[in-house]
Design brief:
It is a single chain. Helix content is 38%, strand content 29%. It has a 3-stranded antiparallel β-sheet, with helices on one face. A hairpin with a 5-residue loop joins strand 2 (31-38) and strand 3. With 73 residues, it is an alpha+beta fold. The two termini are 25 Å apart. The protein is built from 3 helices and 3 strands, in the order αβββαα. The chain has helices spanning 6-17, 53-56, 61-72, and strands at 21-28, 31-38, 44-48.
């Protein structure tokens, strides 16, 4: 388990206890989703952003907020 902080770990552990398949820091260079829930075939069902280190290290509000939706889609 690789998480940015205790909050992500807590959320991930809660989801694991509910029976979900959880992965952390899924993405590519420069942009990662903090927590991803996959189905049995490895397809992404849900992405959860916890506003961890990636969010706080962004250079501008545009990087953080406006482009996030496009990346998630």
């Amino acid at each position: 388990m690789v998480t940015d902080n205790d909050f992500e770990e807590s959320v991930g552990n809660f989801l694991l206890k509910l029976g979900y398949k959880v992965r952390y820091q899924v993405g590519s260079i420069g942009y990662f989703i903090d927590i991803v829930i996959d189905d049995d075939n490895g397809r992404h069902l849900l992405g959860i952003e916890c506003d961890g280190a990636q969010y706080h290290s962004s250079k501008s509000a545009r990087d953080r907020d406006k482009l996030r939706q496009a990346q998630l889609e």
